[in-house]
Amino acid sequence: MFISALCLAATCIVTVQAGSEKSVTAAQVNGTWQRKGGEFKIWALGQQRLQIEFSGVYEYKTPQGPTANTGEGSGIATIEGDTAIFKPEGAEEECRITLKFTGGKLAVTQTSVCGFGNNVTAAGTYKKVSTKKPKFDSD
Questions:
Q1: What is the pLDDT of residues 36-87, one digit of tens each?
Q2: Would you say residue 124 lies in a domain?
Q3: 21 near 81, Cβ under 8 Å?
Q4: Is residue 13 in some structural domain?
Q5: DSSP designation for 98
Q6: What domain range is 97 assigned to?
Q7: Rounded to whole angstroms, how far apart are CA atoms 85 and 4?
Q8: Which of 45, 87, 89, 136 has the most CB atoms less than 10 A away?
Q9: How many domains does the chain have?
Q10: Which residues pair with 126 in a beta bridge?
Q11: Are 131 and 30 in contact (CB under 8 A)?
Q12: How confident is the model at residue 138 (pLDDT cuts 50, 70, 90)?
């Protein structure tokens, strides 16, 4: 594994590369990522760790009108190369969320239900909508 850092004033660019995997910089992962029905807030903490918050919604119609199920999760992910593994705090042991940063997009897969609301999933392709440091609920 190869780790390098370039720091100027209070800003650091951290590059993590494991084997032949592509590496990503903190600037490439940091920010807010969205898709219809989901949002990830991500911030690189250094030492191959990312602070992550996920919020999702599953909208559907009932005879009484539109309604939705919601779910959220937060915690620390580990990243190697361009792929991070995340298990939200308090989620079932089988829960595993894989985040792959590629081509300016975030591709997410989810194993198990992870304790989100009925039909709420983190899986999907996300687009970065902000590069600013997200406001985390834990802040």
A1: 999 999 999 999 999 999 999 999 999 999 999 999 999 999 999 999 999 9
A2: yes
A3: yes
A4: no
A5: E
A6: 30-129
A7: 21
A8: 87
A9: 1
A10: 106
A11: yes
A12: confident
User: Residue 84 falls within a domain, yes or no?
Assistant: yes
Give the side-chain half-sphere CA count within 13 A for 67: 9
Sign of the CA dihedral with 58 first, then 104, 136, and 110 last: positive
Please give the Cα distance from 111 to 43 (Å, whole number): 23
Task: Return d(Cα 117, Cα 104) in angstroms, integer.
Answer: 28
Q: CA torsion, points 121, 34, 93, 96, in degrees to nearest 10?
A: 100
Both structure tokens of 23: 């590496």
Q: Is 79 among the domain residues? A: yes
Q: Where are the alpha helices (DSSP H) in the chain?
A: 26-29
CB-based contact 21:83 (threshold 8 Å): yes
